[in-house]
Write a structure and sequence with these properties.
Layout (H helix, E strand, L loop, with lengths): L8 E9 L4 E8 L4 E10 L5 E6 L5 E8 L1 E7 L4 E8 L8 E10 L1 H86 L13
Family: Belongs to the EMP24/GP25L family.
Membrane topology: Single-pass membrane protein; Single-pass type I membrane protein
Main location: membrane
């Protein structure tokens, strides 16, 4: 993996070649990997340089003579460290700015990455589906909760009204019982009361 988490090696460079200079850098490559390289002189007089890629055994893999750009697409023939050289010695007075891009990878690694990405998309789709179901269930639960709250409030008001009605009826019944008791006492007392005089107003013996 490279610094971006992609399979293989990927590099982008912008190199300033001084007038009359020769610079090389090294990169390890694996045998049978796909290798691509592109370079272009962006700035500097005639914008031409010599460019060469040298194999670990010292043989030249690719050589470009006094040109402003070049491209290589091949399979790596040998495992080891390759040397990439840029030569500006033919230009005595002009600096050159060179852009360089190269990558190396195995197709199997990219196929695996593609499969992993597809699996990730499938997993995200499944998670999205589950969240959709969860959201629907939450909405249903909120609906049930609203109905339950409504029913609870309805029952509470009904119980409250019934309680008030029972209290009123209890008070009325208590008043009726008390009044009836008082009337009964008065009636019984009158029933057993004996007049002290006779109907002719004579004292009773």
């Amino acid at each position: 993996m490279d610094v971006y988490g992609l399979p293989g090696m990927h590099q982008e460079l912008k190199v300033e070649l001084a007038a009359g200079s020769f610079e090389c850098f090294h990169q390890r490559l694996q045998k049978d990997a796909k290798f691509s390289l592109f370079f272009e002189v962006l700035k500097g007089a005639d914008k031409n340089i010599d460019f060469e890629i040298i194999q670990p055994d010292g043989m030249s893999l690719q050589n470009f003579q006094w040109t402003n750009e070049g491209q290589v697409n091949t399979r790596v023939p040998l495992d080891g460290v390759y040397t990439v050289c840029m030569d500006n010695r033919l230009s005595r007075y002009s600096n050159k700015i060179v852009f360089l891009f190269m990558n190396s990878y195995f197709e199997a690694d990219w196929e695996k990455l593609s499969k992993d990405i597809q699996d990730l998309y499938d997993g995200v789709a499944n998670v999205t589906h589950y969240f959709s179901i969860l959201d629907e269930n939450v909405k249903k639960m909120m609906g049930y909760k609203s109905q339950n709250v409504h029913q609870i409030l309805k029952d509470w008001y009904l119980i409250s009204d019934n309680n008030k009605h029972v209290q009123r009826m209890s008070i009325i019944l208590c008043a009726v019982i008390i009044l009836t008791s008082v009337l009964q006492v008065i009636f019984v007392r009158k029933l057993f009361t004996v007049p002290k005089t006779t109907p002719t107003s004579k004292p009773r013996a």
